[in-house]
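Fill in residues.
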């Protein structure tokens, strides 16, 4: 199934944000739930193998947009030879975009590909999180491939691809984490230094940072990531 979501946020009078475009088709509906917040709502079970979803976000200068989901996404394989399911988020940001989806759970036999491509103006701010669990309780893991690319003024700030699960190049037991969490934060006052914790790291970017953590279960992985979001530099974090 093909899914398309489009949201445009624009600065309105009195510092408010108006949303002149809020529409969706396919497996997702989009609902405005706050002055500058929208929630994505699944209208069908999945995604299933072969499904293709694209989310287009435009946040103009002076506007704010927060994007949330109402529940975790459970990725299931299609019958027979299951192709990957795909979700692409393409964002053009002149204002402030806060993108925080609920976790993605990839079941046995499924392969999900996630892409975030954000193009920022010089004064833009972006916060984007990713949370992934391979396999449900007592189940063998599925496979997940995530690519994040962020540009500011056409200059790449971050381009990374992470592959987890059976068949992924870097997923070789006993080094085979089934949970992954990441946050990218960029803005005028977002600079933080390097920091490390058990199975977690935060690295500086130009006017921002990226933090990642991994483990067996998502709850503990997210907790370790939270320790690094705003934590002290590496030397202090290890004390």
């Amino acid at each position: 199934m093909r899914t398309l979501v489009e949201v445009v946020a624009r600065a309105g009078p009195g510092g408010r944000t108006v949303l002149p475009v809020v529409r969706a088709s396919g497996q997702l509906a989009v609902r405005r739930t706050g002055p500058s917040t929208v929630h994505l709502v699944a209208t069908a079970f999945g995604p299933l193998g072969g499904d293709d979803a694209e989310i287009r976000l435009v946040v103009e200068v002076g506007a704010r947009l927060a994007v949330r989901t109402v529940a975790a996404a459970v990725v299931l394989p299609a019958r027979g030879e299951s192709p990957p399911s795909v979700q692409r988020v393409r964002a053009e940001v002149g204002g402030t975009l806060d993108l925080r989806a609920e976790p993605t759970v990839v079941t046995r036999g499924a392969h999900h590909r996630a892409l975030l491509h954000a193009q920022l103006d010089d004064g833009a701010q972006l916060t984007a999180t990713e949370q992934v669990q391979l396999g449900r309780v007592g189940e063998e893991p599925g496979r997940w491939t995530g690519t994040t690319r962020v540009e500011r003024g056409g200059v790449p700030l971050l381009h990374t691809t992470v592959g987890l699960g059976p068949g992924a190049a870097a997923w070789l037991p006993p080094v085979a984490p089934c949970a992954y969490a990441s946050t990218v934060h960029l803005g005028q006052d977002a600079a933080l230094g390097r920091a490390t914790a058990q199975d977690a790291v935060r690295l500086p970017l130009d006017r921002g940072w990226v933090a990642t953590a991994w483990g067996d279960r998502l709850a503990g992985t997210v907790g370790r990531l939270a320790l690094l979001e705003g934590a002290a530099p590496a030397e202090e974090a290890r004390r």
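The chain has one domain: 2-237.
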